[in-house]
Amino acid sequence: MKTSNMGGKLMLPGRFVTALGTLALAGSIVSGAFAGEYPSKPITMIVPWKPGGTTETMAQVLSKAMTKQLGQKVIVKTRPGGGGAIGSTVVANAKPDGYTIEFVGISTLTWPPLTQKAVKYKTSDFTFVAGVSQYQMALISVPGKPFKSMKDLIAYSKSNPGINVADMGGMSKAFVNFIAKQEGIDWTAIPTRGGGEMVPFLLGGKVDFAYSGGIHQKYGDKMVVLASFLSNRLPLAPNAPSTQELYGVAMPGDNGIIAPAGLPEDIRQKLASAVKAAIDDPDFTKILERIKFPKRYLSPKEFDKVVADTIVSLTKVGKATGYIK
């Protein structure tokens, strides 16, 4: 091949330049074809909790609905332990190719990295693909108490210091302590091992009020919602204000599909589209109706915004209560 140098510039024959252009175009077509083939094999959906719980039950039904949309099996694998940290660490360290995803509440990916040095991942280690639903986090009590609303609870607590609240530790304890600090009141914390112990404590009168991640909705009028811990009011308790309204902070209640950081945007969008269609699947609609959780689809952009707002709230609460030094 002959070349010439004119004015210090390397000149290539026209046929060779044309060939280069053809190769470049072919390369872009091949690249696009590979992207369009996703998924070409089964997808693993990690759930960082034990089988049989609410999140795993939702994941099993959602995975089947997503399988219909994607044309490849979405297989649920539970990786429990560490309050969700073990399974989430697996996802954080996975290849960002769309074949390892996670169905998880965003509280697992936000609060632990802020407050626990032992946790080996950061929120930035994940790609937030699409929101699915929302845990119905609330401050609750029972009928017969001398307070029927959040306003009543605060007023009663100021004139009757030391009333009992179920203490389940972690993020819920931080939020309860934050409210007490904001209001200048004193509550007595009664150690409680999760919702399974909280319910009999509350119904039996051992505690006066408690945090609930949504279990209260199974008990109907046997329990009273004083406030939503979310940024919005709860659909089944629209008259109870949110902590966002009252104190400018909210718990991360959304759950959804996430993937490792670095997920290609076209795959992210394809997964998000599958999720959007899957949550309207009749079987998934039925499971949400049974557990009384609302659908709450979040697009990738909306999901990113929710996570960013969550970090602001959690940092405010964590610093005020000593969980973040």
What does this structure look like?
With 325 residues, the chain is α/β, with parallel strands linked by helices. The chain folds into two domains: 43-135 and 253-321, D-Maltodextrin-Binding Protein, domain 2, CATH 3.40.190.150; 143-247, Periplasmic binding protein-like II (D-Maltodextrin-Binding Protein, domain 2, 3-Layer(aba) Sandwich), CATH 3.40.190. It is built from eleven helices and 13 strands. The chain has helices at 14-36, 54-70, 85-92, 107-115, 150-159, 170-183, 194-204, 243-247, 265-278, 282-291, 300-321, and strands spanning 4-6, 9-11, 43-47, 74-78, 100-105, 126-134, 138-141, 164-167, 188-191, 210-212, 224-228, 254-260, 295-298. The protein has a six-stranded mixed β-sheet, with helices on both faces. It has a three-stranded antiparallel β-sheet with strand order 10-7-11, with helices on both faces. Helix 2 (54-70) links the parallel strand 3 and strand 4. Helix 4 packs parallel to helix 11. The radius of gyration is 25 Å and the shape is globular. The chain starts with a strand and ends with a helix. The relative contact order is 0.17. Mean pLDDT is 91; it is low at 1-34.
What topology does this entry show?
Layout: E1 4-6, E2 9-11, H1 14-36, E3 43-47, H2 54-70, E4 74-78, H3 85-92, E5 100-105, H4 107-115, E6 126-134, E7 138-141, H5 150-159, E8 164-167, H6 170-183, E9 188-191, H7 194-204, E10 210-212, E11 224-228, H8 243-247, E12 254-260, H9 265-278, H10 282-291, E13 295-298, H11 300-321
Parallel strand pairs: 3-4, 3-5, 8-9
Antiparallel strand pairs: 1-2, 5-12, 6-12, 6-13, 7-10, 7-11
